[in-house]
Amino acid sequence: MKLTVNGITKQYKNKTAVDQISFQLTEGVTGLLGANGAGKTTLMRMASGILTPTSGSVDADGIPVDTEEYRALLGYLPQDFGYYPEFTAREFVQYIAALKGIEKKKAKKKTEEILELVGLSDVAGKRIRTFSGGMKQRVGIAQALVNDPKILILDEPTAGLDPKERVRFRNLIAEIGKDTIVLFSTHIVSDVERIASNLLMMREGKLIYEGAWNEQKGDLEKFYMEEFE
Amino acid sequence: MKEDWKTLLSDEFQAPQPKHKKEFLRNLRAREVSMPEMLLQQVAYVRPSIWLFALALVAIAIVGSLMRVETTVNVLTMLMPFSAAIAVLETRRSERCGMAELEMTTRFSLRSVVLARMMILGIVSFLILCISSPMIAAAFDAGTVLTAVRILIPYLITMSISLLAERSPLGRKTGYASLAIASGVSIIIYWIDNYEPNVVANYLGMIDSWGIMIALGLMAFTAVEQWKTINGVEAFA
Amino acid sequence: MDLEEAYDKIYRYAYFKLNNQSVAEDVTQETFLRFISQKGNVHEYEIKYLYVIARNLCIDEYRRVKADPLPEDYDAPAPFDDRREERMMVREALAKLPREDQEILLLRHVNGEAVGTICKALGISRFAAYRRLKSAEDKMRESLEVNEG
User: Residue A68 is part of which domain span?
Assistant: First the structure.
């Protein structure tokens, strides 16, 4: 499958959040690096069909981003999300599974599998509001995965995770990336170095780097520091 | 081995592992969920307090009719606006709970989720009306339809204005505009009922001759407002 | 009906019909695609129609397809299997049955379909389905008893 982002721009009244960005992604893990306010979230929202671009288009093998068919392929973790206050982790994932059109029996089975995968099985029946930031983030990752997405878009997925959780998450994403298009944003260079085979870098709404990063290009951390900080 | 052989049959019909099952099923367009199924699904997520409020209204209607409390219909007309306000607040629940962004990226977009919720709450209100109007009508010797119209009019007024208000910039900021409007409508009803007997008489006379037309007109207006709200829920701020 | 479960059932059925792994899988996938294109909006994968489609596809393929060679370890008994003898007996008894009896046993006792589904799938009357099922079961019992005694 090929995800094509074609010249998308998001223009707000006095600011261009994303400026004429184009790229293509295939199966594998792509890291999106950039400082806060670089337009990462806006870009990801457009690629998830939440925001309509001012101009340009997004499609997956020709399926436009604003269709049910595209959303059926999509798993998305927003940078920040809430939950209905009465929800337990299990109910939350099942609810999203239901909205993703997964049949009830299968949704139940899948929910248990996914919660196991993110290491929340033992607290599945607890309310999310009692969870730590890292646990809540894992619930978010779980809901994004529940429909076996072909396109997985994760906005700052490692935010709030402790080091152990972060390692676990990296392994999970590396595994999923084998047959899924994964795009995740971060401002932590080491997240990208470990698992991303492809890299996008944004600054002030523009794409300033695209492609793989390897040793010959030098230290990514250093490059990043020079470019962004 | 009597009937054991049946369990052993499975081994005899075993086929080699299929090789492309997972990819195929993943690429297969998932089945579509029909509207009734969607409604049933969302019914499970309606807050308990909404059911309780609906039950309370029905209870008031039943008890009031059985005990012949004269003011039953007045109390109901004063409470129905809150039922409308709760329904309207429900359209913004996803946003309030931070679920909107998630619900916009699922197959059944936020729009259909909100539509399903509105339909459920509409059905609930309709049921309240269907149970309470005939009971009250029978108890106080009035027409069922006209009683229904009397209960319905404040409900529709509240709902249409609330939908409008919740979409306005001010309504978006406050979050509870609907409840304020419901309280306003309720207070006005109370005031007129108690202090303006002339208005009451005129109003009842008007209901007698024009009530159904007025109710239908309000319904149409409310439907338009609902349509606008539902189309607007995905306008991501 | 869980999609995956339906896939397994249809695949098992097609494999029984064709004895060829890759063609059976092609038939299975084609079955689903045809079902979708026939129904337009898919609210539910109705297993009985899937069987009908699969059965017709198998008939088309049957003439063209060569069965997979049996794997060499096909007969190898599983170690520590205390039911090995029973298994062998069932296998022999089953081999003696006509194909259509085997088919109905597969549908009923392996795939676990209701008789209503089976008669639809095979295009026969409910009565005929009962009769065929009963006769197949009787033959199995008979040959198992003979074998035992």
Answer: 3-80+149-228
Q: Distance between CA A101 and CA C44 in Å, rounded?
A: 12
Helical ranges in chain B per DSSP H? 5-12, 21-27, 35-43, 48-66, 72-90, 93-96, 100-104, 110-140, 144-167, 169-174, 177-195, 197-232
Q: What are phi and psi of A36, to 5 degrees?
A: -60, 135
Mutate to test the interface with C, among B3, B7, B9, B26 (most CBs of C within 10 A): B9
Buried b / exposed e along A33-60 (16+ C-beta atoms within 10 A):
bbeeebbbbbbbbbbbbbbebeebebbb
CB–CB of A105 and C4 under 8 A?
no
Which residue of C lies nearest to B20 if distances are taken between CA atoms?
C25
8-state DSSP, C109: I
A99: left (phi > 0), else alpha (psi -120 to 50), else beta? alpha
Q: What is the CATH number of the domain that holds A40?
A: 3.40.50.300
Contact indicator for A183, A32 with CB cutoff of 8 Å: yes
CA distances from A25 to A5, A48, A132, A157, B27 (A): 8, 14, 33, 19, 18
Query: Does residue C76 surpass a pLDDT of 70?
Result: no
Structure tokens of A122?
A: 């033992």
Shortest distance, CA C51 to any CA of chain B (angstroms): 16
Q: Is the pLDDT of residue C77 over 60?
A: no
Closest Cα in chain A, distance from residue C2 (Å): 7
pLDDT at B1: 53
How many whole angstroms separate alpha carbon C145 and alpha carbon C149?
A: 6
User: What residue in C sits closest to B23 (Cα-Cα)?
Assistant: C29
Q: Which residues in chain C have their CB less than 8 angstroms from residue A105's CB?
A: 2
8 Å CB contact of C25 and B10: no
**In the 8-state DSSP scheme, what is residue C107?**
I
Q: Give me the tens of pLDDT residue by residue for chain B, a chain 237 residues long.
A: 556 788 888 888 888 888 888 888 877 766 666 778 888 888 888 888 889 999 999 999 999 888 888 888 888 989 999 999 998 888 888 888 888 889 888 877 788 888 888 899 999 999 999 999 888 888 888 888 888 898 899 999 999 999 999 888 888 888 788 999 999 999 998 888 888 888 878 888 887 788 888 989 999 999 999 898 888 887 765
Instruction: Show me where the domains of chain B are located.
Output: 33-232
Locate the chain A residue with the closest alpha carbon to C44: A103
Tokens of B37: 């199924």
Classified as helix, coil or strand, B4 is coil
Of residues A131, A182, A195, the one with CA closest to residue A161:
A131
Q: Which chains touch C (3 or more CB pairs under 8 A)?
A: A, B
Write the single-letter amino acid at A132: S
Interacting residues of B114 by C-beta distance below 8 A, sequence separation 6+: B90, B91, B94, B229, B230, B233
| Tally of domains within chain A | 1
CA distance C125 to chain B (A): 24
Query: What's the number of CA atoms in the CB half-sphere (13 Å) around residue B61?
Result: 26
Q: How far apart are CA C19 and CA C14, in angstroms?
A: 8
Q: Which of C28, C13, C32, C24 lies closest to C107 in space, CA to CA?
A: C13
